[in-house]
Amino acid sequence: MAEAPRIALYVQHLLGIGHLRRAAALARALADAGAEVLVLSGGVKVADVAFGKAQVLQLPPCLAADSVFSALLDESGRVIDSEWKDRRRELLLKETAAFKPQALVIEMYPFGRRQFRFELLPLLYWAQNAGLLVASSVRDILVDKGRDDRVLEAADLVRRYFDLVLVHGDPRLVPFERTFPRAPSIADKLNYTGYVVEKLAVAPVADRSNGDVLVSAGGGAVGGPLFKAALAARRLSTLKERRWRFVAGRNLPAADFAILEEAARIDPGIVVDRFRPDFTDLLAACHVSLSQGGYNTVMELLALRTPSVIIPFAEGQESEQALRAALLAERGALDMLDGEDLDPALLAATLTRRARTGALPVDLDFNGAQHSADIILAALAKKPAAHA
To answer: Quick one: angle between helices 295-304 and 18-32, nearest 10?
Structure first.
């Protein structure tokens, strides 16, 4: 019997948990396809993210200080320094080498996570010398930082170190060159995988007439404004006789969570959950969903054909959620509203209209995790054995 391929997968989430959930889905798909997988996770540990049969190495965790990524903090809230970086780099290289992988998958880099060059460049150099297959795992839309030099740098790193770029999207919605203009220069390495969606244990619900108004914001770290807007809209909404369920997210700041708890204490029609392990079931059955435009939530909404209104997170230079939501809104798949100076009456009316019209189906590929695993394993089968 042939030995199972060994694949290391690096992921660093900083603010939300979307990167980690996408990496976990890919790790599960690879493990289910027969690979031995080691996930190298550099963010704060998140409960209830399932990695299946994959192993997980928790690196010393790092997180963003705020929504504009002004600094990187360790788990004690201190700004990371050169000593911290040295310790983590040494551990990452040591444990990756001990695993003896034949392939290395790096989530986002070199298209993002540039702050982690201190460990990723040495890791890539080691992988190249060891003869590993190296792949970048990247979402469909990048954040436009207005830096042509960074775009050129990323393309150069792909040509130098990477065998594959797995774009977790569908060019029928948005081609990669829309937000990465140097894509033609790495076209021989690009592979569209389709969108990575959690394996859905539930099917779309035909009758949502008795469902909740479901309000969510992913991990919740920047969800406060959306929740406040929803509370204001509820008072004006024709849907106010329904139950409004707020799923706050584990990372919603305590002050914002207290506002939701107080609203629920006053109004019996409001239910507040910090976290729901059955969140997908809630999406499948709700009357209408109001959420931010995170990759994972949006793809689940589309796959479940859930009527939805999106208020994208767009602080600082964040443009990714807004662009994806706008493209989908053009197709009638959802409604998008600008979070700045949002009129509660407009939000209330939009929720009512979307609940009434439902969600138009979109013809997109939602099998991204499985396709990614197939692409990696097929490329690995053609590559000479690594000598890690």
So the answer is: 60
